[in-house]
Amino acid sequence: MKSAMPYLGVGVPQCRRIAGSVFRAHPLPDAGAWEAAILELWRLAAHREERYAAVELLLFRRYSGWLEPVRLPLIEDLVTTGAWWDYVDAIASRGVGTMLAAHPGPTKAVLREWAEACNIWKRRTAILAQLRAKSTTDTVLLADAIRPSIGESEFFLRKAIGWALREYSKTDPVWVTEFVRTHAGLSDLSRREAFKHLERRKRQGHPRN
Predict the structure, then answer these.
(1) How many C-beta neighbours within 10 Å does residue 17 have?
(2) I want to staple 111 with a disulfide (CB 3.0 to 4.6 A). Which of 50, 126, 156, 162 is the partner?
(3) For the chain, how far is it from start to end, CA to CA, in angstroms?
């Protein structure tokens, strides 16, 4: 882990348990207070775990109804200032994914913009936003999120592409196989990751398609 911000040494599962107990004991009255608390935790953090707590507050189930498109500037702030996978991946898959399911129209429009952004973490967010969507995955959006980054040499984009494809291969292996076949510019890393689940099933005696 590369981090200029020091650690307290609290493991992520324990950090989540502590944060959850505090959030349950001290409910917030409205969306404005919730957003302000997230930003205060994030901006005043002296240790990385304090930022993990801010992410957990963003994702806390009780407040999931407040994950609306109006919060996309908040998401963008966290993603671009956090600028590392340990923050971005949870925000993308759990936060933006929840928002996308509830408010698909405006969220898709922003994700398509982020997919072409100069900032790699906004691109990674767009690619990973449907990581947990399974059968509700919008494959047109997934393809639109991936294509602008296919030619990029950045490891975190190549890995994200492969991860997104690998997860969706558990739902629709035919679509993933065809996508990889028709996009010759995919990196070897992305291809390996995309087929990892399918190759494992093949070794276990299951057909790829």
Answers:
(1) 13
(2) 126
(3) 37
